[in-house]
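Handoff note, outgoing to incoming analyst
You'll be picking up this chain. Sequence as last confirmed:
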Amino acid sequence: MNLSGIISIAGMSGLYKVIAQSKNGLIVESLIDKKRIPAHSTNRVSALEDVSIYSTGDDVPLKDVFQKIYDKEKGGAAIDHKVADAELKAYFKKAFAEYDEDRVYTSDIKKVVMWYNILQKEGLLDTKEEKEEEGKDAKEAKPKVKADAKAGAKTKAKAKDTNAKPVKTASSKVKVQGVRKAGTA
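Most recent structure output, in case you need it:
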């Protein structure tokens, strides 16, 4: 589940994908109707990867809350965000039991459920792809470390064989000068 580049804009419903950056703001594409619009620097923009939900313990990233709903629904759509408040709270309590009921308002729950349904409809909540990418990255990282360690050992061995004198660098000759206060000459 990759939420990077997905944003919410205050005063505008739905979610948006960042397409490009202009000098006055962002160019975004609606995930609902695929229309591209400018998001100016005066708009309040929230990246979904930075949003978290209050819980009884530490704050929980929105990504983890989406994962819990995804697991509860087995990858399907969640309840409609327009249902009665009591029904919505009961649903959210089943999906994410640790949320702080005093600080998480019904409007917040509606947004989370609406955002989940938008992302699920677009296929952006698929966790299989992310796990495969993480597995590939881990496999690729291990051989590189071994290759670097072998190269480093060869370099050290060459340095010992040549008996070269240590070279003084420019940084060892630099003296620290006093800092002048602003306004003094």
